[in-house]
Write a structure and sequence with these properties.
This protein is an alpha+beta fold. It is built from eleven helices and seven strands. The longest helix is centred in the middle third of the chain and has 51 residues. Its EC number is 2.7.7.65.
């Protein structure tokens, strides 16, 4: 949803409600949300799905509206985040209550009109005319007030849903990051690869870098030393990062480097530069005494072949990493 002014919300509502009546659509919060977006015409895909569904079924069932609401009006993450899910349910409840109030006042108004007709049908209708007018005026005012309140509620919900979507988008971005190093995590790396693979032409390479003997470091010097080593390597990789590279920490002491437009030979050469540079690093404790005389890593390098998918590309790089480990560690392998 976009943020609309009260005037815009009213104008859109005046378009949406007649359509809902014409299609005999139930006045549920989900339906109001979908048809509100439908008349705005800012989501062609949503409008197409609504038109297609109506063309096939003759109507838009409530369960379809609910699915479309979650798909187009609220990000998918809201279903899995308790805080945002509660907020969304509260928004729906607000609209539902406002809808109930409006329907109640309209029914009251209809009842008042019916009673007024009966009174005016009597012979002494002139005698009761002032009372009837006052009776109808009060009922009309109440209906207008509830309709206006419903419009304001819809506008408030509109703004809150927009804010909710912005928060969820930020969460989505953070979900792709490793909290320790702020590099991409495994999920973020996979997302990136899926966007790069379709346009690559045998020039997309992946380096899987793993710290040698990290368990020994944790055992001998404590987990804080292991964590410090991981953070240090992260900083080194960032300092040596190429313009066409993407960095990620997959798990533990395992990192990944994706090189766009890089041949296998270039990727191997770059991997060796990184490995040699890390070998020269010294990790020191806070008091200045050396903990590790040398930082050693093993690297597996793979370059995409034909229409290879991201999962297989990563699997090959991991396989070559295993080969580097078996060959004695602290080396690069590409087969």
């Amino acid at each position: 949803m976009h943020v609309d002014s009260p005037r815009q919300a009213n104008a859109l509502l005046k378009k949406a409600v007649p359509l809902m009546r014409k299609m005999d659509v139930a006045p549920t919060p989900y339906n109001y949300g979908i048809w509100y977006e439908y008349v705005r015409q800012t989501s062609p895909k949503l409008n197409q799905l609504v038109d297609t569904t109506i063309g096939r079924l003759g109507s838009l069932p409530s369960f379809v509206s609910k699915e479309l609401f979650h798909q187009f009006l609220v990000a998918e993450e809201a279903r899995y985040n308790n805080e945002h899910k509660d907020r969304l349910e509260q928004l729906v409840e607000n609209v539902s209550q406002s809808t109930t109030d409006m329907k109640s006042s309209l029914k009251t108004l209809e009842s008042n009109v019916a009673k007024s007709r009966k009174v005016l049908a009597r012979a002494d209708r002139a005698k009761h005319l002032d009372k009837v007018i006052n009776f109808l005026d009060k009922g009309t005012q109440k209906a207008l007030q509830d309709a206006d309140e419903f419009s304001k509620t819809l506008s408030r919900v509109n703004k809150e849903v927009s804010q909710l979507k912005a928060e969820l988008e930020e969460i989505k971005n953070n979900v792709d990051l490793d909290p320790l190093t702020q590099l991409l995590n495994q999920k973020g790396l996979e997302r990136q690869l899926y966007t790069l693979v379709p346009s690559s032409e045998d020039d997309l390479s992946v380096l899987i870098i793993d710290i040698d003997h990290l368990k020994s470091v944790n055992s001998n010097y404590g987990r804080r030393a292991g964590t410090a080593l991981i953070c240090h390597i992260s900083r080194v990789l960032q300092s040596r990062k190429l313009e066409n590279a993407t960095l990620a920490r997959l798990h533990g002491g395992t990192f990944a480097v994706v090189l766009h437009e890089a041949t296998l030979d270039f990727a191997i050469e770059y991997a060796e530069i990184l490995r040699t540079h890390l070998n020269k690093q010294r990790l020191k404790s806070r008091n200045g005494s050396g903990i590790l005389p040398s930082i050693q890593v093993s690297i597996g390098v793979a370059t995409i072949i034909g229409q290879e998918n991201p999962a297989n590309l990563i699997a090959r790089a991991n396989g070559y990493l295993d080969n580097a480990k078996r060959q004695g560690r602290n080396r690069t392998a590409s087969r």
